[in-house]
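Milestone M4 deliverable, item 7.
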Amino acid sequence: MADDGRARGRKAEEQEAVGQKPMEAGDSTRGDKWSERMTVANLKEPAAGERLTGAGSAVSAAGGELRTGAGSAQSAARGELRTAAGSTESAAGERLTGAGSAVSAAGGELRTGAGSAVSAAGGELRTGAGSAVSAASGPMPGSEPAELAADARLHAAIRAGLERGKRRSRPRRRRRLGLALAAALVSLLAMTAGAAKVSPAFAAALRSVPALSGFLRLIGESPALLSSIDRDLLQVVGRTAEKDGKRLTVEALVADERRLVVFYRTNLRMEGLEPTRLDVKDAQGKLISASYGHFSPDAQDGPADEAGARPDMIDVQMSPDESLPERVLIEAEQDGVVLQVPLDIDLGKTAGLVREFPMNRTLEVDGQKLTVVSARQTPLQLELRLHKDSANTMDIRNLLNLRLTDESGREWRSTGGFLGDEPVLFYQNGYFQKPKSLTLRADGFVMFAKGQKIVVDSEKRLVLKAPDDRLSLTAPETSLHHGQLDVSNVLAFRLSGLDERESKYGYNLVSSTFTDGSGKKWEEVGTDRMIRSSMTSEGQTYYVKLPAKKLPQPLTFDVEGYPGYALHPIELEMRPE
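Output delivered:
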C-alpha cells in the first residue's frame, strides 16, 4: 500500500459496553474526555463473530479515560479498559476554542467568537448582530411569579457556572468544563426560544429538580440533552437507596428507546475519587446490552449534600437492535454494600419521535467497500448504520476524520458506536432543530490487514512477531489502580512512531483470547482483563491482564485493531424521508 494507504488509527472515549463491541476510534482534537466506558460481564463471542466488549468512540463520549479499546474496550468482565476516547479525548467532550471567546471575571460577561455575550450582572443576552434581550430586567406582561423565579434561578445557575469555569486553572481529564461549559449555558439561553425567560418546561424542571444546575455542568453543550429538557422530556425520579452511610439518589432521567441518561447523586467513591461503577439491569436483574458512559465529578462540579453525595450522571446507549425496557434497576456496589434504585421509564414521551434517512450508498477506497445503509434520528441521538463487504481483505474500523454537518454548517459530533460487520456510529443530536439535510464527510478509511498475529514472550517481555516494528512490550506502571494491582501478570503493549492521523485513534490491539506455547487456548482474566489504555505525545500504551499463573511461552494473540488508513475524499448527502 502506498504511504497514503498505510494503516493508521486513533483513540476513543471512555466507555463500557455489554453485549456488543464499541468503536475504538474517536476524535482527539475535541478536548477532554467525559465518560468512562467499561466492559462488563464475561462476554462471549456472538454468532456473527463480533466480540462483546466495550468502548470507544467507540463510543462515547467525553472526559475520562476510555476504558476500552481506545477506543474499544475489550475487557471481558467488568474489566476497566482505559483508553482515550473520542478518543483520546472524547467524542463528546469538546473544547471551546473559537475566535476570541472569553469570560470576563470582572465584568461578568461571556463573549463568544461570534461576538455574542451574556452579561451576568445586567442579565442581558447580546447576539452577534448586536440585538439584545433582557434576561433579568423585570417581569414581562403575562409572566407568572413562579416562572420569573425559575428564570432567576436559571440565570443564577449560569452566573455560578461562569464563575466556576473562570476559577478552573487547568483542564481535567474526565470533564467538559471551563469555557465549554460557559458556551453550553449560553447555548441553553439561545435555545430556550431566544427570549427573556426560559421555556415553561425548563422552568418546571428547575422547580422539580433543585440540583439541576449541577447536572447542567455535566451535560455541557450536548444539544440532545439540553433540547430534550427544554421540550419537557425530563422525567423526575427522586428515589434514594441508603445503607451503612452510603447513599445513591436518582434525581431524574431523560430517555428514548435507544438511549438513557440518568442524573444521580452519590457519596460512593473509589480510592482517588474515581466514581464507583453503576450497572443498569432489566427487571430480571440481567445487565442491559449497551455502552455505558460515566462522569467523574469533584467538588467544583456541584455542592455535596449532608452525606457527601455530588451530582453525577450515567449515559447508556443501547446496543444495535436493542430497545430500552420500561423498567430498569440502577445498581451500585462498594465494600460489599449494594445499593439499588428501581426506575420506571415513560417511553411514551418520545413515542413516534423518529426520523429516518435512507441511504444504501457504497463507498470504495483501495478496493475495500463500506456501505452507508441509513441514519435514524431520535430525540437523544442519531445512529448511522454501516455494512462491511465480506470480500474485504482489510478490516475497516472507522471512517477517517469523519464529520457530519447540517445545511447551516453546524457540525454534529460523534459520541461513539459499535464495531462488527454491521457497525453503528452515534452522533450528538439536533432532532428538534429539524435539519433538512445532513452531509457526511471523511478523508478515507481507518483499516488494517485481516488475519494478523501478535506473538510475545511474556516472561522476557519481548515481542516476537507483530504487524510492524512499532509495537513493543514495556514494564507496566506500578501506579495502576492506585498501586493496588499486582502488575507481575500484566502485559503493557507500547505503540510508538504513529503519525499525526493515526495518533488521533486508539486500538484494540489484541483479542480477548490467546494461545500459549503448548497450544492451549485461554480467556484473559474476566474480572479485570483490560486495565486501561493511555495516549501521550510519545505513543500509546495498552494493558492486558493475564491469568495469575505460569504460562508456557510464547503467547499468541489475534490482532483486533492496529494503526492503518487509506486516504480518499468522501462526501455523501442524506435527506430525511
